[in-house]
From TrEMBL, chain A:
Pathway: Glycolipid biosynthesis; glycosylphosphatidylinositol-anchor biosynthesis
InterPro entries membership: GPI_biosynthesis_protein_Pig-F
Name of the protein in question: Phosphatidylinositol-glycan biosynthesis class F protein
GO biological process, one term: GPI anchor biosynthetic process
Transmembrane segments: 12-33, 45-63, 84-105, 117-137, 158-176, 188-209
Any Gene Ontology CC annotation: endoplasmic reticulum membrane
From TrEMBL, chain B:
Pfam families (UniProt xref): Phosphodiest, PIGO_PIGG
Alphabetical list of InterPro entries matching this protein: Alkaline_phosphatase_core_sf (IPR017850), Phosphodiest/P_Trfase (IPR002591), PIG-G_N (IPR037674), PIGG/GPI7 (IPR039527), PIGG/GPI7_C (IPR045687)
Domain GPI ethanolamine phosphate transferase 2 C-terminal: 845-1002
Alphabetized PANTHER family for the sequence: GPI ETHANOLAMINE PHOSPHATE TRANSFERASE 2, PHOSPHATIDYLINOSITOL GLYCAN-RELATED
Gene3D superfamilies named in the record: Alkaline Phosphatase, subunit A
Record family assignment: Belongs to the PIGG/PIGN/PIGO family. PIGG subfamily.
Gene Ontology CC annotation, any one: endoplasmic reticulum membrane
GO biological process, one term: GPI anchor biosynthetic process
TM spans (from-to): 12-30, 437-461, 482-504, 516-534, 555-574, 580-604, 625-645, 672-690, 702-720, 740-761, 825-850, 870-890, 966-989, 995-1017
Name of the protein described by the UniProt record: GPI ethanolamine phosphate transferase 2 C-terminal domain-containing protein
Topological type in the membrane: Multi-pass membrane protein
Organism of provenance: Chrysodeixis includens
Localization (cell): Endoplasmic reticulum membrane
MF terms (GO), sorted A to Z: CP2 mannose-ethanolamine phosphotransferase activity
Length: 237, 1033
């Protein structure tokens, strides 16, 4: 549940979610107009991941931007290159863990490694990457294992919620695979890939919706009911 | 009614009632109009028409004919045009040939798309046979087949009833078949000459057809008397269908292929001109194809197929040019039979193709009469308008025969045709019709029983139902409740009777004759009893607070189990049910993994940070201590194991053909790995069994000896059947008799059981065989003793004050029995399983053990307490059920009849014995659920502290199991009703219904076994009292 106390954070959350709601559908629309939506599983569609990578990076610059200047300076003084390196190593580990996990969940073992790798890269990008950018390796690791509670940090809450929704989307995407419609988009890993993107998008849309409703609720208290309903959607407890 | 709800086996009784209702449902769902088996002969032809005599056989005679039936697979209506088939199109234009629109029975399954591995050929073969079944069945027997025809011919899909080929053989005709070997399997022994081709290689669309065409020159060439060498020739061309599957109906290759077919038609037609007898060529497709190339749907392009009739001599098509009249596929049978001068087949309901009817009025009318009379015999009631029309036609025909008036002949013809048309309609509707009233009533009763079971279950999962408060209520209204029962029973009867009359049904349920009145009474009683259960449940269920404490894992189990059943409203989810279960099971494993990971990391980090904090939280330490730190790696390994087992057998329909691990293991060059699987599986089972023996009364290790002997028997059996290479030192095991080994195996299990019972009764005490006394209290757990100090006169005490530890011994007995049951079940399944599947058996046990450890709330939830006790039972029971189902699919089962392993039915049998074979097959198919269930009950017995607690736990667990079974059946029956006219009703929906039926039988059996064990505990206790009493004297 977001709090209205920190207006600055709330604004940052809303704007970054709005950016996501714009750039992600644009990417999907462009590639589907190009007719290459169903080749997202191939390695050749790496540029989608690159675009998402850049977008998330920019978003995180914005999210981190107006932090306390002193805190920033402290951080800068530390070994930045080492931080980045550690972040990459950690992301590689997470990606590998996703890869193994997806295979354990039923992806083909001996073939389609390329497709599975693409899916795990996407999942890493959408779940862990923003968290690392925002909080750093250690904190995100602690968040991951449930040791640290994110308390009242709205931004982290949003990020964790996004991550969970992404995983759920990928998980639900697998439902259509056994249907006998013989459509091209039932091929591995397209349903899960699109499901992950859909989950991420949905999470962002919900965030925007909720913030706008919350600000509206100050005027019209009846909207609080809707806010309550939306809170039910939030998986991160 | 409350005592009934508290009765421990109420759920079992309700389940049995539900089973009865399900049987009624099956009766309504599968119209039992299967082949009467009536064989027709020439003597059946009528010699009198309404009293006017006529020489039937002479008039019926069609002259000398040779018939060629050319079936082109996948030939759809718009393929027979001048563009695709110039020669045939020309003939139709000249009126030398007639074209009809024939409506195919929608085919059921499509072909496997690519080459199937050798091992799966049998499965694929079965599916293909079912695919062709309806079309060929309709064309050759003249009747529409029902699912009963398929299910009752299980395993050997041959047509048992009458067919064109049977009557042709009886009349001494020569029948020849070139083409797909399904025809040979459907009509074994009825062909004079044949060359069957198998066509598994869908990429091959030239060779399959050349294999047919290469015989044509020889078979069409007339002999010296200018007669062809056959009377009836069947040609089945598959190439067109294969092209359709590969490239679709718009493919470049379609036109050359159809041109080739056209050449074949030309060849046959020109050859027919050379004969001095009449030649008839019938060209038809068995089904069409979609533009995309597949078939299996009910769209016009798939169902409408052309039927072209050509005749060699003096033939002009009587129909105007155009698309031609519509005929049915069943019309081929009587037409061909007549051309062969044979009577129409016994079950035929078809008519003669109009173009073939002779010009001669007398013969024409006589043929119509024969066919009409034949069709009236197909269970057509005599009091219908159709029948009266037929009688009128008969009168006119007789009038014509007597007087020769042409006007009478015309009237007779019109009447006959009208009545034939009506008859075809009537027979088509009755042969495929369901007993809708029975279906609806059965579904309603099933639903009520489900709600009753649901209230019983909810009642039982309340934290502590108070028995005490009830006891004084019970006496109060004894007579009153009887009166209430009678009143409700009368109302139920009244409602049912009213429903019968309002719906004006023809159903047997409302027939009120002797056998059915009992069914009716059963339904009324079921209504009444469920009413009382629901009412009591509504009043008494108060405290459902346990569901508020459920964590994510519980919620998943409790919510996903009922919601899952609604996925059956999509037929692909029925076909691919295993995917849904794998999905759910994966999710569960993932949830548990996350939970365990959290507990683990918290524990480790606390341990790392400082020991003081752990000391502050002793309960955390306790939680980890019960399972150990190893739980996490174990769980990860379990997930990996499941991933491996999932690759073992491809199942379902769409991905059946993909090679799987079992294929790889069964390849001859990998036999060493297969044997390793077999040995590891067997030895792991042995180890589990030996560890389970600690719950048994293992006097001087006798049981260990028994178990090891049984496992040795299994290994010897494997060696004797050649699945395992004999060990070096003794290689003559190979020559031993497998049947004898299996008999020995049964004897060992039986001896073990008897030994256990006797040891409980205490008979060994008198022989001086006491259990070895050690210091642990466990060692004398099987001895009846008095915990209190003995008094001199305890035999004379009243029974109430009996100080003996009866309950404790009973609990020990139940523990021992359930574990022995689990052991025996595992050993039997190891014996029955295919070598590559043996590894499943220990896996099920390990999965059950680990899962029940991991989902235990002691581990997962920070606050432990008594309130989780019931929740533990609920989620534990559901989890074991899931495991059973998941392994059911790992093992290679699916919802198709083709995946039933017939081979396992004959383990250790010399000759066919239906009951034993069915039992073995059933146990083999349901090995997963059976072992998981046995593990659940063994677990319950092992964890119970007191006899009372055991009984209560069992009560809850059985209620949940019974409820789930009933729930699955009820939802699925609703699916069946909804989809009763669905295209896949045969191939997908009906088999699953049969599976559900068998699963219900097994559930009843499982619950009954638990009830028997409890009864046995009481009986042995009684016997033991007698023994102890005597020996002590």
């Amino acid at each position: 549940m977001f709090s209205l106390h920190n207006q600055l954070e709330l604004r940052k959350v809303t704007i970054s979610s709005l950016i996501t709601c714009i750039y992600l559908p644009s990417i999907i629309t462009v590639i589907s107009y190009k007719g290459i939506l169903y080749s997202v599983g191939n390695g050749s569609s790496c540029y989608v991941l690159a675009l998402i990578f850049c977008a998330e990076l920019l978003k995180s610059f914005y999210l981190n931007s107006s932090k306390d200047v002193h805190a920033r300076r402290n951080k800068v003084n530390k070994n930045k290159a080492g931080d980045i390196l550690r972040g990459f190593v950690f992301m590689l580990c997470v990606k590998f863990a996703f890869f193994i996990g997806i295979i354990l969940f039923g992806a083909p073992v001996l073939e389609c490694h390329e497709e599975t790798l693409m899916l795990s890269s996407l999942l890493t990008l959408l779940t862990i990457f923003p968290l690392i950018l925002h909080t750093g390796v250690e904190t995100s690791m602690q968040l991951l294992f449930g040791i640290k509670n994110y308390g009242r940090d709205t931004v982290i809450e949003m990020l964790v919620n996004n991550a969970l929704m992404t995983i759920c989307g990928a998980w639900l995407g697998a439902v259509v695979i056994p249907l006998d419609w013989n459509t091209p988009w039932q091929k591995w890993p397209i349903p899960c890939y699109l499901g992950a993107i859909g989950g991420f998008l949905l999470s962002n849309v919900l965030t925007v919706l909720k913030v706008s409703l919350m600000s509206g609720a100050t005027k019209y208290p009846i909207l609080n009911i809707l806010v309550h309903v939306l809170n039910g959607f939030q998986i991160s407890k | 009614m409350l005592p009934w709800m508290q009765y421990r086996w109420t759920s079992l009784c309700l389940l049995v009632a539900g089973f009865g209702t399900l049987t009624l449902f099956l009766y309504g769902y599968f119209p039992l109009k299967y082949n009467s088996g009536k064989l027709s002969s020439m003597d059946d032809l009528p010699n009198f028409i309404d009293g006017v005599s006529i020489d039937g056989q002479q008039v019926y005679n069609s002259g000398e004919n040779s018939v060629v039936l050319m079936v082109i697979d996948g030939l759809r209506y718009d393929f027979v045009t001048e563009w695709y088939m110039p020669y045939t199109g020309q003939l139709i234009k000249n009126k030398s040939a007639c074209i009809y629109v024939s409506v195919a029975e929608p085919p059921t399954v499509t072909m496997p798309r690519i080459k199937s591995p050798e091992r799966k050929k049998e499965k694929a073969q079965w599916r293909r046979t079912i695919n062709f079944w309806r079309d060929i069945f309709a064309m050759m027997t003249g009747s529409v087949s029902t699912f009963a025809d398929v299910a009752l011919n299980f395993g050997a899909p041959a047509v048992r009833g009458d067919s064109v080929l049977r009557v042709a053989k009886a009349r001494g005709r020569r029948t020849v078949m070139y083409g797909d070997d399904t025809w040979l399997r459907l009509f074994p022994g009825l062909w004079s000459e044949s060359d069957g081709t198998t066509s598994f290689f869908v990429t091959d669309y030239t060779e399959v057809d050349n294999n047919v065409t290469r015989h044509l020159d020889k078979v069409l060439a007339p002999d010296e008397n200018k007669k062809p060498s056959f009377d009836f020739l069947v040609l089945h061309y598959l190439g067109l269908d294969h092209i359709g599957h590969l490239e679709g109906a718009r493919s470049e290759k379609i036109k050359p292929k159809l041109g080739e077919m056209d050449q074949v038609v030309k060849k046959i037609y020109t050859a027919m001109q050379q004969w001095d007898r009449n030649g008839v060529l019938i060209v038809c497709g068995d089904h069409g194809m979609r533009d995309a190339g597949g078939h299996g749907g009910a769209t016009p392009s798939e169902v409408l197929v052309p039927l072209v009739v050509l005749r060699s001599q003096d033939f002009v098509c009587p129909h105007p040019l155009g698309q031609g009249p519509t005929v049915a596929q069943v019309d081929v049978a009587p037409s061909v039979a007549w051309l062969l001068n044979a009577p129409p087949p016994g079950d035929s309901t078809g008519r003669l193709l109009p173009a073939l009817l002779p010009q001669d009025t007398r013969q024409h009318l006589y043929l119509l009469h024969v066919i009409a009379q034949h069709n009236t015999k197909q269970s057509l009631p005599t009091d219908t308008e159709v029948y009266r029309q037929f009688e009128r036609a008969e009168k006119q025909f007789a009038h014509y025969l007597a007087t020769g008036q042409q006007s009478a002949a015309k009237v007779a013809k019109v009447f006959y045709e009208e009545s034939l048309e009506k008859m075809a309609e009537y027979l088509a509707s009755t042969s495929t019709d369901f007993d809708t009233f029975a279906l609806v009533i059965a579904e309603c009763i099933l639903y009520l029983i489900l709600v009753a079971l649901f209230s019983v279950t909810l009642y039982s999962v309340q934290p502590s139902p108070r028995r005490e408060s009830v006891s004084h209520h019970a006496h109060r209204s004894h007579a009153g409740s009887i009166v209430a029962f009678v009143v409700i029973f009368c109302i139920a009867n009244f409602v049912l009777v009213t429903a019968c009359y309002i719906s004006e049904t023809k159903s047997q349920v409302c027939a009120f004759n002797t056998p059915w009145i009992t069914v009716f009474a059963f339904l009324a009683i079921a209504l009444t009893v469920t009413y009382f259960f629901i009412k009591t449940g509504y009043q008494k269920i108060r405290d459902l607070s346990i569901f508020k404490d459920a964590n994510a894992v519980d919620n998943l189990l409790i919510l996903a189990t009922p919601i899952f059943n609604f996925s059956f409203f999509g037929t692909s989810f029925i076909e691919e049910e295993h995917m849904t279960w794998y999905f759910l099971w994966n999710t569960l494993m993932f949830f548990v993994l996350v939970k365990t990971l959290m507990v683990f990391t918290i524990y480790v980090s606390k341990l790392w940070v400082g020991a003081t904090e752990v000391q502050d939280k002793p309960e955390l330490k306790l939680r980890m201590a019960t399972v150990g730190v190893g739980i996490l790696p174990k769980w990860v390994l379990l997930i990996a194991l499941h991933r491996y087992l999932r690759t073992m057998n491809q199942t379902g329909d769409r991905w059946l053909f993909l090679p799987d691990t079992a294929d790889w293991l069964n390849a001859p060059e990998n036999s060493i790995y297969l044997q390793a699987h077999l040995v590891i599986g067997t030895l792991a089972t042995l180890k589990i069994c030996l560890s389970n023996l600690s719950y048994l009364n293992n006097i001087i290790k006798v049981h260990s000896v028994f178990t090891i002997a049984a496992v040795l028997c299994i290994l010897c059996y494997r060696v004797a059947t050649g699945a395992l290479d004999p060990p070096l030192f003794n290689s003559n095991i190979k020559s031993w008799d497998p049947v004898f080994i299996v008999d020995l195996f049964w004897a060992i299990l039986l001896a073990q059981f008897i030994f256990e019972i006797i040891s409980y009764i205490g008979a060994f005490k008198s022989c001086g065989l006491e259990p070895i006394v050690t210091n642990t209290p466990e060692s004398n757990k099987f001895v009846y003793n008095k915990p209190k100090a003995k008094t001199e006169d305890y035999f004379y005490d009243s029974m109430v004050e009996e100080p003996w530890n009866v309950d404790e011994v009973k609990l020990n007995f139940v523990r021992s029995m359930t574990h022995m049951m689990l052991n025996d079940l595992m050993l039997i399944v190891v014996l029955l399983m295919r070598p590559h599947n043996v590894i499943m058996v220990p896996s099920i046990y390990v999965t059950c053990a680990l899962t029940s450890q991991c989902i235990d709330h002691k581990l997962l939830d920070p606050k432990s307490g008594n309130k989780y006790e019931v929740l533990d039972i609920v989620s534990g029971t559901l989890a074991h059920m899931w495991i059973g189902i998941v392994f059911f699919f790992y093992q290679g089962n699916s919802n198709s009849l083709s995946s039933v392993d017939l081979g396992s039915g004959y383990v250790g049998l010399r000759e066919y014995c239906p009951a034993r074979v069915a039992l073995r097959m059933g146990l083999h198919a349901y090995a997963g659920p059976a072992i998981a269930g046995a593990a659940l009950f063994a677990d319950i017995a092992a964890n119970a502290d007191t006899w009372q607690q055991y009984l209560k736990t069992i009560w809850r667990a059985t209620n949940i199991l019974a409820w789930h079974r009933m729930y699955a059946v009820t939802v699925y029956c609703a699916v069946c009703i909804l989809f009763r006219h669905h295209l896949f009703v045969w191939s997908v929906i009906s088999p699953k219904l049969l599976y559900d039926f068998v699963a219900t039988v097994f559930s009843i059996q499982a619950l009954a076994t638990i009830a028997q064990i409890e009864a046995l505990a009481h009986v042995t206790n009684m016997l033991a009292r007698m023994f102890t009493y005597k020996s002590s004297l």
